[in-house]
Amino acid sequence: MAKGIEIRAAHFPGRAPIDAYGNGGFRFADMSHRGSILCLPSGIHGWAMDETMPLAVDSFRRVLEEANEIEVLLVGTGANLRPLPAELKAAFKGRRISADPMSTGAAVRTFNIMLAESRAVAAALIAV
User: Fold this and answer.
1) How many of the other CB atoms lie within 10 Å of CB of 19?
2) Which positions, given as ranges, span the membrane (predicted)?
3) Are strands 72-76 and 121-125 parallel, antiparallel or unpaired?
4) CA 118: distance to chain centroid?
5) pLDDT per residue over 72-118, tens digit each?
6) Three-state SS for 57?
7) How many domains does the chain have?
8) What is the largest CA-CA distance in the chain?
9) Which domain covers residue 91, as residue numbers?
10) How far is residue 109's CA from residue 98's CA, in Å, rounded to a whole number?
11) Cβ atoms within 10 Å of 95's Cβ, excluding its own
């Protein structure tokens, strides 16, 4: 029996700086991804999140699963800064993650600098 095209969850298995962002996506490691992304110790993952969705604990499950390898989480909240809800801040604090919300552009720039410094950084970046 012939096998059709297999659709897999978007995942780049490594750490890489973000080369560009905008137009609803990101460029990194000579690839492009349409939509939001999570940049974690396990790699760069597609993230089903956009600016209209609430910043809820469930949306950050994958981040919390890798918490012991993350000291700083940069949350790119889109074109504008959105505060993190108290429940989400408490979940990060309970896992010893310092979470900093900022615009996606600022988060990308900060992530690239911290990654180059070999810091234990992760980023949750909502596409703009």
Assistant:
1) 14
2) none
3) parallel
4) 17
5) 999 999 999 999 999 999 999 999 999 999 999 999 999 999 999 99
6) helix
7) 1
8) 52
9) 11-125
10) 17
11) 16
